[in-house]
Amino acid sequence: MSTDADALATSGDAEYDYEQLGLVAGLEIHQQLDTETKLFCGCPTELREPEAADRRFNRRLHPTRSELGELDEAAVEESRVDREFVYLAYDTTCLVEEDDEPPRRVDEEALTVGLEIAELLGTTPVDRAHVMRKIVVDGSNTTGFQRTMLLASNGVVETGEGPVGIEDLMLEEESAQRVAETDHGVRYSLDRLGVPLVEIGTDPDIRSPVQARETAERIGMLLRSTGSVKRGLGTIRQDVNVSIAEGARVEIKGVQSLDDIDDIVRNEVRRQATLVEIADRLEERDAAVGELREVTELFAGTDSAVIESALAEGGTVRAVRLAGFDGLVGRELLPDRRLGTELADHAKRHGAGGIFHTDELPAYGITEGELAAVREQLPPDERSRPSSSALERRSTACLRRPAARTRTAPPSTCGRCPAPRGCTPRRTCPPSSPTPRQSRPRSF
Ligand SMILES: [Zn+2]
Questions:
Q1: CA of 103 to the centre of ligand 1 (A)
Q2: 3-class SS shares of the chain: helix, strand, coil, % to 5
Q3: Which fold has domain 288-397?
């Protein structure tokens, strides 16, 4: 805890000593440019209403090997979820957005604005910009990748708590706008796909929530000063990378409001610190995750409306013993977010309708008798096998430090890039990068 009472009173950071926790944060800022035409075709950069679409088509994601023969882990993971992507096209979009025609020229106006931003950030422009690919697994690009160019690197912005380095400035194509979740996947609108976008990545120099916000504000101001960036909701988005010494690197994507950045960093620190505490408690208790077993027949005559309706639709009930987790699954990580919420999110993503945990039971029509019957079905000292279910894997992850997060960005693949920003296929990984400031983040 800080001893500076005035600072505590004004900063709102009273809960944690961020220096002691080893907070490391970085930002990635995405800003749409207000150019006449798109980055790789002559279509206008105007947004449309989905109702104005004059055609639609669908695609599915299939991971393919890169030029190096490697499969992208995130793409493989995503393709396990069977989803269909539907795209809305307009009289203001063309075959380039549909990936039925190769990209044309790089938009000159976008390059000019990009270089102006490079100068404002004090970065050094590259001699020659090359178009590279960054794998995209969520369907937000028809190609399965995003085209991107490194424009400049090594700049700096000043903040009240010291300089924050600018690692790089990229010029890239904006993704398609997600307009709806459908029964089978996601519907995207192609109007936004290909709008020029600059991506500014800071070095992991940010050490407090307030400094994170100030950095974003400074960069936002520089961008607006060009007079050539789009304004309004959704035209600027920030990704915030946060880690603490014993936590995992977590990327929180798509923050639209500057006002939220300090609170987002604060909350993420609290969440990670609580997960580290939980991992410590689980270790003390020699906690173990059992194997998932089907217990549907125990609920044949259940009073639980949720289970009854799931069974009516042909669903099943499965249970797993989380030995030593008692009282911790209901532990609040953030307001309205418990460890159980994290487990449920992960299970749902992999096809479960939802989860109940015994910290919250009996309730929801599930009786003490049903709970006892379930407990009897689960061997007390069983440990899950490596080929376990999503819920088992996520629960098992709680036993380890650092604790991982389901919304974690794909982990760095080169092993050389410093936290908290990992390398992605588009980033040039230096042969020897600066010493990582913390242990390598883990994801699962
Ligand atoms: Zn076009």
A1: 9
A2: 25, 25, 50
A3: Gyrase A; domain 2 (3.30.1360)
